[in-house]
């Protein structure tokens, strides 16, 4: 593909490019080349459609198939019941496909794809930063000084033992207290 003046030379034929202003949208003074399809390069066929529609879809040829001969790109459209509407939609789609094939990221479709990719990357970056901030806060909370492990004597004193070596199982006493509390709570709820 070579750019020669105001046309792109792609193998067989020339594709017309014109410069259009952005019409007040976007950056000031920005112009981009507009891609124009030449009518003599388009092969147009009308075929019977497919899908829902009953008897009518089997009788009417309102599906439009367009082929851009130099590039070999083809599209098919049966979005509407009317032939003229399908022709218009098919030409628009063919123009976008050929422009994307020739110009890549500089085409209208390519710019739209890049815009969506950038937006998705930006939102993922923001989400990652947000979750990293939440994870850092959780990590800071978990990094608080852990309570030191209690010795057996300290456990016995907390359980009510004298600390003189009496063997008191603090876990079983705590369990008893919890079960007593649960029993009293269930009686309260039943009243």
Helix-strand blueprint:
Layout: E1 2-4, E2 7-10, E3 13-21, E4 31-36, E5 42-47, H1 55-59, E6 63-68, E7 73-77, H2 83-103, H3 108-142, H4 152-159, H5 170-190
Antiparallel strand pairs: 1-2, 2-3, 3-4, 5-6, 6-7
Domain Prokaryotic-type class I peptide chain release factors: 36-128
Subcellular location: Mitochondrion
InterPro entries: Mito_Transl_Release_Factor, Pep_chain_release_fac_I, Pep_chain_release_fac_I_sf
Percent of residues in beta strands: 15-25%
Oligomer: single chain
Q: Quote the CATH topology of the domain at 2-119.
A: Double Stranded RNA Binding Domain
Radius of gyration: 38 Å
Major sheet, described briefly?
Answer: 4 strands, antiparallel
Query: How do the helices and strands follow one another from N- to C-terminus?
Result: EEEEEHEEHHHH
Summarize this structure briefly.
Belongs to the prokaryotic/mitochondrial release factor family. This protein has 191 residues and is of the alpha+beta class.
Folded structure, characterized:
This protein is α+β, with helices and mostly antiparallel strands and 191 residues long. The chain has a domain at 2-119: Double Stranded RNA Binding Domain (2-Layer Sandwich). Helices cover 47% and strands 20% of the residues. The protein has 5 helices and 7 strands; from the N terminus they run βββββαββαααα. It has helices at 55-59, 83-103, 108-142, 152-159, 170-190; strands at residues 2-4, 7-10, 13-21, 31-36, 42-47, 63-68, 73-77. The strands form 2 sheets. The chain has a 4-stranded antiparallel β-sheet, with helices on one face. A hairpin with a 2-residue loop joins strand 1 and strand 2 (7-10). The longest helix has 35 residues, at 108-142. The protein is elongated, with a radius of gyration of 38 Å. The relative contact order is 0.07. The mean pLDDT is 73. This is Prokaryotic-type class I peptide chain release factors domain-containing protein. Residues 175-185 have a biased composition (Acidic residues). Keywords: Mitochondrion, Transit peptide. It holds the Pfam family RF-1. Belongs to the prokaryotic/mitochondrial release factor family.
């Amino acid at each position: 593909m070579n750019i020669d003046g105001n046309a792109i030379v792609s193998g067989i034929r020339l594709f017309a490019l014109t410069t259009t202003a952005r019409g007040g949208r976007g950056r000031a003074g920005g112009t981009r080349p507009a891609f124009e399809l030449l009518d003599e390069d388009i092969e147009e066929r009308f075929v019977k459609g497919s899908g829902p529609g009953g008897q009518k879809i089997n009788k009417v040829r309102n599906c439009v198939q367009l082929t851009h001969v130099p590039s070999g790109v083809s599209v098919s459209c049966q979005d509407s019941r009317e032939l003229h509407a399908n022709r218009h939609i098919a030409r628009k789609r063919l123009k976008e496909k050929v422009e994307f094939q020739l110009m890549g990221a500089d085409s209208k479709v390519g710019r739209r794809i890049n815009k969506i990719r950038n937006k998705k990357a930006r939102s993922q970056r923001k989400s990652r930063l947000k979750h990293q901030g939440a994870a850092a806060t959780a990590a800071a909370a978990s990094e608080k000084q852990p309570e030191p492990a209690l010795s057996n004597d300290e456990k016995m004193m907390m359980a009510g033992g004298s600390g003189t070596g009496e063997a008191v199982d603090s876990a079983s006493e705590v369990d008893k207290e919890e079960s007593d509390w649960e029993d009293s709570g269930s009686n309260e709820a039943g009243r």
